[in-house]
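In this section we walk through a basic example: taking a raw amino acid sequence and producing a predicted 3D structure, encoded as discrete structure tokens. The instruction is simple. Fold the sequence below.
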Amino acid sequence: MEFSFDSLKEGLGNLKSAAGNFAEKSRNMKAKAAQEFTDGLNNATKSIQPQAMRPRKPQLVFPRDMLVDSQRPYIRFTCKPVNGGQPMTSVNLPCPGGVSYSDGGSYTTIDMGVIGDVAQAVAKGGTAAEIAGNASGAFMKQIEGMGVSGAGILALKAMGANDTATALEFANKSIRNPRTNTAFSGNTLRSFQFNFKMIGKDPSEVDEINEIQSFFREQVYASKLNGTSTVMQQYPNQWTVKFMDPRDGEELQYMPKIFTCYLTGASTVINSTSNTYRTDLSPYEIDVSLQFQETKILDRDEINALEGGARFNRDDEAYNELSSQAIDAVNAQRDRLKKKVTDANTSTE
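The resulting token sequence is shown next.
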């Protein structure tokens, strides 16, 4: 059979075409399988979506008559969108016992050493020459008082020969005075825990309890960004926690205030004391434990403002403004690119 470059070229072309067809079929099969999986998931969850996505009532109350008949203080948990906007559902429950506040600061230590003497000399003030003279004099005074071994230890440490200096310290049973001071490193982030036991008196209260525990558990979780993204998540919503006076609906005067919070945990226990169910098979009792953490570490001005009822997070406002500016910049850049593409297409026509 006579060899032909044309036949070889034609064979390679057919092979390339077949490979392309195979790749296309493979992509179509993968896309079809993915679509079938998505359709199956949607069909499987279609029946529960109305229940899962149902709008929450603006106010949940347990016991149901608490805001009408009771004169006991109560606690109000109000959920607000993380990016601002109108408050969502508020949950009102009897004020729990054992509410604790832990205000604190973090401290570490710093060894001043010889720096302490220099700092004292600087603190005396005067001209630069006088300060340098005071520091030098303080240092020389310390050197004279150390003796030969003390001066040797200090010199070795200054040269970085710490092992040799340590050996000399051990031999002479003496060490350099570390002059340790306490250094403030910041305040601590406050967190709070609240525990509730709920036993419904009638079917309406049983339903209310179910809504309450379900809502708290739901709000622990993040959501899809803009409700659609599977790559980015939106922060969980924020909360305000207030101890309320039933007489006028204002915050209690004698309870310390709590800043805006995230709900970091919600624990639910079904029938903790007995395995008893009602005739409709609802549990007899529900225990809910809630853990909240404030959205930021407060300073003294903010804690004083909080006691007056102000819950304004300056950092949130600053970042929201930064985010708005970034979005404006992205949109402007996108518009410029679109214009360039349009101009390029127009010039080629």
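Looking at the output, two observations stand out. The radius of gyration is 35 Å. The chain has a mean pLDDT of 78. In the next section we compare this with other chains.
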